[in-house]
Every structure is written in structure tokens, then in C-alpha cells.
UniProtKB/TrEMBL annotation:
It comes from the Eukaryota. This is Protein phosphatase 1E. It catalyses: O-phospho-L-seryl-[protein] + H2O = L-seryl-[protein] + phosphate; O-phospho-L-threonyl-[protein] + H2O = L-threonyl-[protein] + phosphate. It is found in: Cytoplasm; Nucleus. It is an enzyme of class 3 (hydrolase).
Length: 477
């Protein structure tokens, strides 16, 4: 359940609102080009309007320096106001690609086109940003009582482009998930964390970071069966993006790993090879098995559909793509599936932190070794605030050339005093080094360990042109 914000948090909120209104209160936008925050899309469907508005409002407020309590609450109220306005004038005819079912034509100049109805995202952004200004002006005159999650997390993030030509990773942290979604104060406290590793362009990762969390909250089973809601959110996000990809001839996709903490229960879902690991009593707990084309069950699924998995510098589906499950990738469905795995894990009070990351981390350092490195870093006096950056640097030192994103969530707010004689079942712990990793019975539904096909010996990987790595470090205290 939510609790009332402290006096200090209320005062900080008032200070921000006063500053924000003084700067923006008289501004009414009517031109997309002058907006401080815009959508990554030109048009969207009716089902996507809420997600577009909510993400624009949230990012605008965050960029303006709002606390997470203020940003999430105002974003929700501004979105409600935007959706209550007359949006009919935002719907317009849009010419899109219409690839014939019996055609493999990829030359856009030779593809058929059709006209559909869609909503202008630029106009939606104008309405949303103006709604943020209106809500903040009302708050300046009559500040409401602010509610917040009863859990306060210490979170650190770091990402780097590395040697790749562009950065295609996205990540998001929503510690005030309930405020953002407008949930009742008696609803269990929730926080959401995700890493989206895009490929084939940034379109799918940009789309997913804006819509996935909203698609969870919209599911009918969100309150009663969160694992089911997570699964349906993956499928819904994939379905909607595939429609967009078909209309705009986009070939992008993204792997995904998401974690939602509802009170003391951790829910995770994933597609592809982005992963999450947990430290419990100083050791790594295996929570998941990443989806890779050479995983025995994945290879069997793909072959039963008529596809194949072959080695071309890496294990690839039909010789093309090196992931077996993802959102998007319209040209590789159904072999590349959007049906996720999910897991529910009840926290026992001795869990220390979570690490979410893309394959740029996990392909070079195995999860048990990642946890071991962090433990050594902290034991040696290393700062928590440097853990995410430390792991990115270690991955690069171990040979990673990929984009790398790491999110570290410390679980102090869930910690309880434990009996010092209580020890963890060895079956829950991931092995390190060369020892065999036991199957993890840590939570019902854990994906069983499967035998990966051994890669054939091959020459060194092709060299990559080194680009300047754009890096970013963030902290959410």
C-alpha cells in the first residue's frame, strides 16, 4: 500500500512546482517543433494513445528535475486530462506500406501502399505537455496530499555504446509505478525495472520502453495474476509493434528482461538473452534461463515450425538472427517468438540486490561471476554508486564489444533480520568457475537448465570499427 509523503518530500515538491510554473506556467504550445519532449513515433493507434501520453509526460517532468513522486503523479493526471479532451481532430489518413501476403518484395519503391486511420503523435504530445502545465498550475494554488510507495530503493544504472556504431539499448526504472498508473492507495506497493536490448535499429526498443509497463497495468489479470498479466503484456506489445512495423516497414526487434516488485514478491519476465541475477546471502541465485537459438528446447521449437538453427559466427535462427525470442523482428516470426518465460519469487528478507543487464554483460561474464565481482568490489570498500559502471568496465575488459546496459537495484528496504544459523539451500545457488550449476528450485516456474549446443571452432570474430562510446551513469536514490 502507499504511504503519505514526508514533510520534506512535500516541501521539495512545492519548491519544484513553484519553479516549474514560474518557468512554464504561461507557456501554451501549438507547434511540435518547439516542444521540450516529443514521441519517437509520428502516428499511433487508438490503443497506443495512453502509453504515448504517459511516457511523454513522465519524461518531460523527469527532464525538468521533478522527483519520482511528483513526476509519476503529475504524469498520470496530465494523461487523464489529455485523454478527456477531444482527440477526434488528431485522427488522420496515413499512407502506409501494404506488403502483399504472397510477395517477398522488400524494395519500398515497389511495395503497394494503403491508407489507414491513425492518431498524430505530434498533436498528442502538444496536448500532453500543455496538460502537464495545467496540472502544475493547479497544484501551485492547491497542493494535494502526495502518496508514495512504502519501499525506497537505492538504484544505479550505467550504459555504454562501446564499439558499436549506435546505441540500441534502453532501460527504465519506475519506483512509483502505482502513482504513474493511478492505482488506489491500498493497492500493494510496486516498482518496475527493465532493460530492452534493441537490434536492427532503435525503433522497437524505443517503442517498448514507452508502452510495455502501461500494457501490464491494462491487463484484466493485473491485480489477480501478475505473471499472466506480464505474459500478456509481452504478447500485446509485440502485436502492436508488429502492426506498426508492417505499416512502416520496420525490421527492428528487442530482447527484454523486466522485473516488477509487488510488496515482497518479485515477478520477472523475459524474451531473449537479456538477463537478471540476484544476490542472496552473498551468493548468486539463478532466476532464469536466457532464450538462445542453440538452447535444446528452443532449437526443437524452431525446427518444428520449419526453421533451422545454424552457425554463422554465432548460432542464428534461419542463418539470420542470433536471438530466438524477442519483441518485433517481423521478418523472423514465428521462428523468433514473443511468448515469454515468467517467474515469481517470494523475498525472504536476506536478498541483497538485483542486477539487470543486456547480453553485452552476460555474454562475457557469467551471472555467478558477476555477483562474485560485485561482492569483492563492495568488500574492498567500493561504493555502491559505482557498481553498475564497474560491471560495464569489467565486461569491456573481458572483451565485450556490444552495447552494455546494467541496472543495479539494492533491496535494503526488503531486508529483515535473519537467524544467523539459517543457511540457504545449496540448490538455490548458482555455481561459479567450472563447477556444475544445479537446477534452481528457488521459485516455482524457474526455467530448467538446458543443454546448449557447443559452437564449432571458428576463427576470431570480425573486427569492429571503434566508435566513440557514449556512456551514461544514473542514480535513483
Amino acid at each position: 500500500m502507499s504511504v503519505e509523503a514526508s514533510d520534506a518530500e512535500h516541501n521539495a515538491a512545492k519548491e519544484f512546482i513553484n519553479m516549474f510554473v514560474e518557468k512554464n506556467g504561461s507557456v501554451v504550445y501549438d507547434d511540435v517543433e518547439s516542444l521540450p519532449k516529443r514521441s519517437s513515433s509520428l502516428h499511433c493507434s487508438k490503443e497506443e494513445i495512453q502509453g504515448e501520453c504517459l511516457f511523454i509526460a513522465l519524461e518531460y517532468l523527469r527532464d525538468s528535475g521533478a522527483s519520482e513522486i511528483v513526476a509519476s503523479t503529475v504524469a498520470h493526471r496530465a494523461t487523464v486530462r489529455a485523454l478527456e479532451s477531444d482527440l477526434s481532430s488528431f485522427e488522420e489518413d496515413v499512407s502506409v506500406f501494404d506488403k502483399r501476403p504472397d510477395s517477398d518484395e522488400e524494395d519500398e519503391s515497389k511495395m503497394d501502399r494503403k491508407v489507414i486511420k491513425a492518431y498524430n503523435c505530434g498533436k498528442l504530445a502538444i496536448t500532453t505537455v500543455n496538460a502537464v502545465h495545467e496540472v502544475c498550475k493547479e497544484w501551485k494554488s492547491n497542493m494535494p496530499k502526495l502518496m508514495k510507495s512504502k519501499y525506497v530503493y537505492e538504484i544505479y544504472m550505467h550504459s555504454e555504446q562501446n564499439t558499436r556504431r549506435r546505441m540500441e539499448d534502453k532501460h527504465i526504472v519506475l519506483t512509483e509505478f502505482n502513482n504513474l498508473c493511478g492505482l488506489d492507495k491500498d493497492f500493494p506497493s510496486q516498482a518496475f525495472f527493465a532493460v530492452y536490448d534493441g537490434h536492427g535499429g532503435i525503433d522497437c526498443a524505443c517503442y517498448t520502453i514507452a508502452h510495455f509497463h502501461n500494457n501490464i497495468a491494462k491487463q484484466k489479470t493485473f491485480s489477480s495474476d501478475l505473471d499472466d498479466a506480464l505474459r500478456k503484456a509481452f504478447l500485446t506489445t509485440d502485436k502492436l509493434f508488429l502492426e506498426k512495423a508492417k505499416n512502416e516497414n520496420l525490421r527492428a526487434g528487442t530482447t527484454s528482461v523486466v522485473a516488477l516488485l509487488r510488496d515482497n514478491t518479485l515477478h520477472i519476465g523475459w524474451l531473449g538473452d537479456s538477463q537478471i541475477s540476484m544476490c542472496k546471502q552473498g551468493r548468486a541465485v539463478k532466476l532464469m534461463e536466457p532464450h538462445k537459438p542453440n538452447r535444446k528446447d528452443e532449437r526443437q521449437r524452431i525446427e518444428e515450425l520449419g526453421g533451422c538453427v545454424i552457425w554463422i559466427g554465432d548460432w542464428r535462427v534461419n542463418g539470420n538472427i542470433a536471438v530466438s525470442r524477442s519483441i518485433g523482428d517481423k521478418d523472423h516470426k514465428p521462428y523468433v517468438s514473443a511468448d515469454p518465460d515468467t517467474l515469481e519469487f517470494d523475498l525472504e528478507g536476506d536478498e541483497e540486490y538485483l542486477i539487470l543487464g543486456c547480453d553485452g554483460l552476460w555474454d562475457t561474464i557469467q551471472p555467478p561471476n558477476v555477483i562474485e565481482m560485485v561482492q569483492e568490489h563492495l568488500a574492498g570498500g567500493g561504493a555502491r554508486s559505482q557498481v553498475a559502471k564497474f560491471l560495464v568496465e569489467r565486461a569491456i575488459a573481458h572483451g565485450s564489444t556490444d552495447n552494455i546496459t546494467v541496472v543495479v537495484v539494492f533491496l535494503d528496504c526488503h531486508r529483515t533480520e535473519k537467524d544467523p544459523e539459517t543457511s540457504m539451500d545449496v540448490g538455490e545457488v548458482e555455481g561459479t568457475g567450472d563447477e556444475k550449476v544445479p537446477e534452481t528450485p528457488a521459485a516455482e516456474g524457474t526455467a530448467k537448465e538446458t543443454g546448449d549446443e557447443k559452437a564449432p571452432e571458428t576463427a576470431a570474430a570480425e573486427g569492429a570499427t571503434k566508435e566513440t562510446g557514449d556512456e551514461k551513469t544514473e542514480a535513483v536514490p
